[in-house]
Amino acid sequence: AHIQASAAAKGGAGSLKPGATGEARTYYLFAHVEAAEGKDQAFNDFYNGTHLPEVLQVPGMQWAVRGQLVSQTPGDFNAPRTFALYEVRSYDIAATMAEFDRRMKGGIIKPFPEGIIGRNMLISWAGPKAAAAPAHQH
To answer: N or C, which terminus of the chain has less Cβ within 10 Å?
Structure first.
């Protein structure tokens, strides 16, 4: 199920780019991470009860969903078993990423408790390239 961000977060993209005009663009944040061996309950409790709500307060965040890797041979990819996908609207994805990092480094988004994260934590952003000048038509 999608977990919705607050109305303030959903509409907050402009706070990271004051005076922005036009439409904010849609981007996605992928977090690939799994629980350490035997720590599934603690990992999921923290992720769902603390981490998701804190990440969803970053201006421009729209929603999040968590899931499991679906593959006949997940070990072939050496990938984490679980992921979270977030949708964000942003006028300036670099500013959004910087705000996310600032909140992580400042403890506004709390770090995972010691020992509950397993292998392969990977965070990536995806979406359109930065807005460019309109192409000339011939």
So the answer is: C
